[in-house]
Amino acid sequence: MASITASVYTSHVPAIGAALDLGKTHEPYWQKVFSGYDFSKQWLKANTPDVIFLVYNDHANAFSLEIIPTFAIGTAAEFTPADEGWGPRPVPKVIGHPELASHIAQSVIQDDFDLTIVNRMDVDHGLTVPLSLMCGKTEAWPCPVIPFAVNVVQYPVPSGQRCFRLGQAIRRAIESYDEPLKVQVWGTGGMSHQLQGPRAGLINREFDNAFLDRLIADPQGLSKMPHVDYVREAGSEGIELVMWLIARGAMADVAGGKPPKVVHRFYHVPASNTAVGHLILENPR
């Protein structure tokens, strides 16, 4: 049967993608950001999964304000990088895994979570920047990727507890797939940031690091944090952090297994006008 070997958590700042694409990674400002992923790139090469299940949010590229799915799973064979107004990023197309994606959709919907099944969509920086951070510049991504888009742009957005429980349903779905695939679940977005209004540029180091602590040690308790706390403490875009709870909910300890191993942790301010957080957790072998 398939199994989840690890979860990866990272910000998906668009300016990070631009810095990489424009060859600015060694500039003093950006070198501090990218150095936090040096270990991660080597780790991923040594622990390349068969499939990555990547949780992210679309930024009005695949979904306009006309149609806003709360949870959408990409079941296509491939996904093209989106044109976000300045042309698509010069990165490889994303190869999907329709068989596993369809199985997860079937299982999770039968587990009482409503998913939107998407057979064609472009993927924006929310998905491609995490891949670039973990893989660097490459001709092809190291394995198939299943995009899983979450609405954290237009209210109402799902609660942390809903996302945490969804992660558990995704784990059950993956573990019931009748093929010995090694799967990683990635949660992306955040950390604290606000892009508009009087608090534009807000960054809360204390909140961010406390979030990482609780994500590791008390994910169930963390999942009960109300939306107003995210917005007050981490800014209007800090709500993206609920997506990390999907990946955390998919880990073995949540279902009674052993605690995950903290392989890598990184936090840096600033990157553009946000904080960058990054974490790798491995399930015990």
Question: How would you characterize the overall build of this protein?
Answer:
This protein starts with a strand and ends with a strand. The protein has 285 residues and is α/β, with parallel strands linked by helices. The chain has helices spanning 14-21, 28-34, 38-46, 98-110, 125-135, 160-175, 205-217, 219-222, 227-234, 242-249; strands spanning 3-10, 51-56, 71-74, 78-79, 94-95, 116-118, 145-150, 182-188, 261-271, 274-282. The chain contains ten helices and ten strands. Strands 6-3-7-2-8-1-10-9 form an eight-stranded mixed sheet, with helices on both faces. The chain has a two-stranded antiparallel ribbon with strand order 4-5. It has a single domain, classed as LigB-like (Protocatechuate 4,5-dioxygenase, Chain B, 3-Layer(aba) Sandwich). β9 and β10 form a beta hairpin.
Silhouette = globular
Estimate the helix proportion, in percent: 25-40%
CATH homologous superfamily (4th level) name = LigB-like
Query: In the residues, how many domains can be counted?
Result: 1
Strand content: 15-25%
The CATH topology annotation reads as Protocatechuate 4,5-dioxygenase, Chain B
CATH architecture identity = 3-Layer(aba) Sandwich
Q: Give the number of DSSP strands.
A: 10
- Summarize the main sheet: 8 strands, mixed
Order of helices and strands: EHHHEEEEHEHEHEHHHHEE
Distance between the termini: 15 Å
Q: For the residues shown, what is the average pLDDT?
A: 96
pLDDT < 50 runs, ≥5 residues? none
Counting H and I runs of at least 4 residues, what is the number of helices? 10
Give the strand order, joined by hyphens, for the main sheet.
6-3-7-2-8-1-10-9
CATH class: Alpha Beta
Give the class from helix and strand content and strand pairing: alpha/beta
How big is the Rg? 17 Å
